[in-house]
Amino acid sequence: MIRIDDYFTFHKNDKIVVGCSTGPDSMALVDMLLKIRDRYNLSIIISHVNHNVRKESYKEAEFLKNYCELNNIVFESMVIEEYGDDNFHNEARNIRYQFFDNIVKKYEANYLMTAHHGDDLMETILMRIVRGSNLAGYSGFKMIVEQDGYNIVRPLISFTKKQLMDYDLENHVPYFIDKSNEKDKYTRNRYRKYVLPFLKSEDEDVHLKFLKFSNTLNESCKFIDKVTKNAIKRCIDNDKILIDKFLDEDVFIQKEILYFFLKNYYQDDLILINDKHIDLILRLINGKKANGTINLPNNVIAKREYNYFYFIKDIDVITSYEIEFDKFVKLPNNHSIELVDSVDNNSNNVCRLNSKEILLPLIVRTRRMGDKMAVKGLNGTKKVKDIFIDKKIIMEERDSWPIVLDSSGNVVWIPGIKKSKFDKKSTEEYDIILKYN
Predict the structure, then answer these.
(1) Please, are residues 125 and 139 in contact by the beta-carbon 8 Å criterion?
(2) pLDDT digits over 54-93, tens only?
(3) How far is residue 226's CA from residue 228's CA, in Å, rounded to a whole number?
(4) Which residue, of 238, 245, 286, 371, is most buried by count of CB atoms within 10 Å of its CB?
(5) What are residue 5's phi and psi, to 5 degrees?
(6) Are 383 and 304 in contact (CB under 8 A)?
C-alpha cells in the first residue's frame, strides 16, 4: 500500500488543489489524499479541465462531479470552448495551468498537486534530450516547484504508471482511460509505447535511475544559477539585455542567461524551447542587423533594438477567456482583479457594487461582438467597442482586455477604462469592492 505522506511532508490544515483528469494516475492521487485527509485535516479541492476534444469528456466530468459530492470534496471545473493555437498540447496546458492558478488563489491553497509520475519524468527527459535543451531542461521536471504564493507538487514522481494502476485495482479506485493516449501521432505517446518498455525490460527500476539523473542535474543547476545571476547583474538594464556586455560572457553562460529570461514565459516546461531556438536568438544578437525579431513558441517574441535585447508576450494572439469571479483572478494581460475590503480612491481601477442590484456570481471575460454597457452618468448604453476607441486602446490590447459582467449579462465594469451605472460612490450603499491591479 502506497502511503503518500511517506513521500511528501503534509501539515495540519493544508489546503490542496488537485489537478484531476479522471485518469488512473490522478484518481489514485485523489484516493491517497482522501486516506490521510482526517489525519491532517486537509482541505481538498478538485480542479478539472474538460478539453472538449472527446465525446467522453462530458461523461467523465459528470462522473468526477458526482464522485466529489459523494466524498465531500470541493469540485471546480471549466470547459475549453475553442482553441486558437496550432499546438494543441501547448495551448491546452497553458489554459489548464491558468485555471489551476485561479483556483489556488480563490481558495488560498498551499499546494497545487498533479499526478505526474516516474514514467512521465522518463518521457520528458528523453524528449528533451532528442529536441535539445539546457541542463535544467534535461532534468525534466522537479517534484516541487515554487510558484507565486504556493508550490506545485508532484508527489507520485517515484512511482511508475503500472504501480499506480495496481494501486487503483487493490483499492477499487474508479477511473477512465483516455484512448487518445494510444495514438502514435503524439510524440509523447511514441516514447510511452515503444521506448519505455525497452528500458524497463533492461531494468524494472529504471525510472528511479532517471529520477537520480534528474536530481543530479538539478543540484548542478543550483551552482550554475549562482554564476548566471552574477552575470545577469553585469549585462542587464531595466529587464533588457545589454548586448555589448552580454557578448563578454562565456557562450555557456550566455545561453543560461537566455534560458533564465525564457523561464518567465515557459515556467518549468522548457520542452517548447530547443537548441534551434537558442541558436536563432544568438545569431540575431551576434548579427549586424540593428533591429530584428524572432517568433518563439507560445506567442513569445524575441526582439533586438540596437544594443538592447529582450522578450515580450504577444498578447494579440491570446485566446478568449471566461472566468467565474470569486475573490481573485490572474489575467492573461499580467494584471489581476481582486475583491478588497476597502480602497481610498475612485479611479477607473476601482469598482463598488451593490449585490442587491446585480446577479452573482460575477464573470470576467474578453469582449464579444455586440457587447454594450450602461455607462455611468450617461442615458442609455454604449458599445464596448466604441468605449475602447474613445479611450484610444490599441487594437492589439482590445481582444484580451477584461470585462466584468454579472450573471445576467450586464457589463458592470471595464477595469481601468470605464464604470457602469452599477458603480457606487463611496457615500452610497455597496457591499462589493473590486480593484484592478
Answers:
(1) yes
(2) 888 999 999 999 999 999 999 999 988 766 544 556 667 7
(3) 5
(4) 371
(5) -75, 0
(6) no
Q: 106 and 248 in contact (C-beta within 8 Å)?
A: no
pLDDT at 324: 84
Q: Which CATH number fits domain 238-316: 3.60.20.10, 1.10.287.3510, 3.30.465.60, 3.30.70.260?
A: 3.30.465.60
Q: Give, for 170, the enclosing helix (H) or strand (E).
A: helix 161-171
Q: Which residues make Cβ contacts (< 8 Å) with residue 285, sequence separation at least 6?
A: 241, 243, 246, 247, 304, 309
Rounded CA Rg of the chain: 24
- Domain residue spans of the chain: 4-117+154-202, 238-316, 322-436
* Residue 200: closest CA among 161, 251, 241, 169: 161
Please give the grid coordinates belonging to residue 127: 524528449
8-state DSSP, 420: B
pTM of structure: 0.65
Q: In what order do the strands lie in the sheet with 418-419?
A: 322-324, 363-365, 403-405, 411-414, 418-419
Instruction: Please tell me the CATH code under which domain 4-117+154-202 is placed.
Output: 3.40.50.620
